[in-house]
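Running co-folding for prephenic acid.
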Amino acid sequence: MELKELRTQIDQIDDRLLQLLNERMSLVKEVGKFKTKNKVLVYQPDREKAILDRLGDLNDGLLNEQAIEAIFLEIFAVSRNIELPERIAYLGPEGSFTHQAAENRFGSMSEYLPLGSIQAVFETVDTHRANYGVVPIENNQQGVVNETIDYLVGSDLKIVAEIPMSIHFSFATKSEKLRDITKIYSKDIAFRQCKKFIDDLYGKNQVELIPVNSTSKAVEIALQDSKSAAICSHIAARQYNLPILFENIEDSRDNQTRFLILGREIIKEKSKKDKSTILVKLTNSNEPGKLASFLQDFHQANINLTKIESRPAKKGKNFNYVFFIDFDGHFLDEHVSEVLEKHKKEITLLGSYIKLC
Ligand SMILES: O=C(O)C(=O)C[C@]1(C(=O)O)C=C[C@@H](O)C=C1
């Protein structure tokens, strides 16, 4: 078939796609009216996941799972904005990996607020200046982000979803010849994680590695100096239109960060596979066996604990601790609700949400 004919057919399909998308959005608008009237949350991650799963099972064409997900996450984001414009606060700066995680989930239609600290993200959601907040909670190479746990302990915000994201670095530069590059800018940690790539490309000592505060800053500098490059997130390079020469240059493919989406209300709908997060402040926690007997109740109810972190309670003179616990199951599951009820004085439920990792 001639190119012209192929393009005519593509145009016809695009016309149909547009019409179908608009039909979809009319229905979404009705859903929005229902939700406003009945005070139901706009963001329903379990419903989105169910749609993706259904489409994945149905699919027998050229699109792979990631492509379907990317297209539909963008459609959901547009839908949510039609229902109610969303404003997302995240730990900045722009172009950070948290920004990338937020955009992956909330799409390009939402309004984004880059903030300078995890505390500011909590405050902004708490005071209704944003609908949701996105913060990192742990990295599989470097452990938990204590600051996030500490603010979860001190705030009324809830966890509405988790976003696991593989951390990939890109090599971006204006230079057309690799051998012209004399300086590479990035965060310290990024140099460490891309050491093999840099050594392979430049050998030892042929290029100066200059650490800066954020990978977005690295991009800004590399944009000014065509004899330099930045090691950065994909989103940062794209934002400043700095050409990416190599993608996924990190030494280890296992580098994953988990982010949390924070909201003001707990998600009540269950999905096929949920997890929950609770905070536990044991009364008389110094009594021997207190923690063990508390955990035993979970074990007896057949609840699988997947994480337990302890943080200083920061109250009183003693060494008291708050436990941050993740387990499989939803707070509405009978076997879970019984244990939560038994320990209701000691437990604060932070949320039940779809388990993605
Ligand atoms: O089903 C809903 O509750 C909707 O609001 C519709 C829709 C969608 O576009 O399919 C949009 C947002 C929700 O997060 C889930 C699904």
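Result summary
The chain has four domains: 1-84, 86-167+255-265, 170-246, 268-354.
The mean pLDDT is 92.
Job closed.
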